[in-house]
Amino acid sequence: METRIAVIGIIVENRESTEPLNKILHEYGQYIIGRMGIPYRERSLNIISIAVDAPQDVISALSGKIGRLPCVSAKTAYSNVVTTHET
User: Fold this and answer.
1) Per residue in 49-66, is it b (16+ CB within 10 Å) or e — as a string?
2) What is the pLDDT of residues 18-53, one digit of tens each?
3) Which sign, positive or negative, has the C-alpha torsion 68, 40, 59, 27?
4) Judging by DSSP bridges, how do beta strands 2-12 and 45-54 pair with one another?
5) pLDDT tens digit sequence for 54-75
6) Do 87 and 1 meet the contact criterion of CB atoms below 8 Å apart?
7) Looking at residue 16, what DSSP letter applies?
8) What domains can be seen in the chain, in order of their start residue?
9) Host H or E run for residue 43
10) What pTM, to 2 d.p., does this model score?
11) Is residue 34 within 8 Å of 79, Cβ to Cβ?
12) In Å, what is the CA distance from 75 to each residue of 7, 20, 65?
């Protein structure tokens, strides 16, 4: 199995989307390396950065699920480092 390291940048524009977002992140928790959240109160939004180490299709699925949430935007940046793991 090959994995890549990626960062998913997330902007949450409505607090009602935080609970479904957290459920998705919990579902993919085994792939998450770290998470940083910044509340931007002056603009009433939250900025979240998620670092993951996962297979390409898992990263794409996670980013896609996040991006389909209402009032949530997500963009993914991939590293060029690919690691092969024995299964």
Assistant:
1) ebebbbeeebbeebbebb
2) 999 999 999 999 999 999 999 999 999 999 999 999
3) negative
4) antiparallel
5) 999 999 999 999 999 999 999 9
6) yes
7) G
8) 2-81 (3.30.70.1150)
9) none
10) 0.91
11) no
12) 8, 18, 12
